[in-house]
Amino acid sequence: MAATSLQRSKTELGAAFRRIARHKGGAVAVVALTRKLAQLIDRMLRYGQDYVDIGDKAYDAQFEARRLAASRRPLVSSGSHWSRSPSHGGTFHVSGSRRGAPVRRGGRR
User: Fold this and answer.
1) What does the pLDDT look like over 46-78, one tens digit per residue?
2) Does 63 reside within a domain?
3) What does the DSSP assignment read for the chain?
């Protein structure tokens, strides 16, 4: 019940719920957020750690930064360089040893 009420909240947990629900479905998001809430409550009770909500906008910014850093790792290890061009609609341009190879943007292998 608590996880489903996060669906429309403007909190970090609400943003996480909406991101998971968008990709995996609402039922999976409820289970994932129930687990996340249980972990937060466990930390509060066991260690006395406070929960500080950063808000949905900050969560989305952190997630985007992590996603871009993860997509950059395979290119950097191969010696390629990439840049994001706003003049081309935000598309990625790759240069270096892998030129012409498809750009992998995360996901399962």
Assistant:
1) 999 888 788 778 877 888 888 888 877 666 666
2) no
3) -HHHHGGG-SSHHHHHHHHHHHHH-HHHHHHHHHHHHHHHHHHHHHH-PPP----HHHHHHHHHHHHHHHHHHHHHHTT-EEEEEGGGTSEEEEESTTTTSPPP-SS--
- Other residues' Cβ atoms within 10 Å of the Cβ of residue 32: 17
Longest CA pairwise span in the chain (Å): 53
**76 in the same domain as 41:** no
Q: Are the C-beta atoms of residues 2 and 37 closer than 8 Å to each other? A: yes
How is residue 47 written in tokens?
A: 């260690």
> 82: buried, middle or exposed (CB in 10 Å: 19+, 13-18, 0-12)?
middle
Whole-prediction pTM:
0.55
Does residue 26 lie in a domain region? yes
Q: Please indicate, yes or no, if residue 62 is contained in any of the structural domains.
A: no
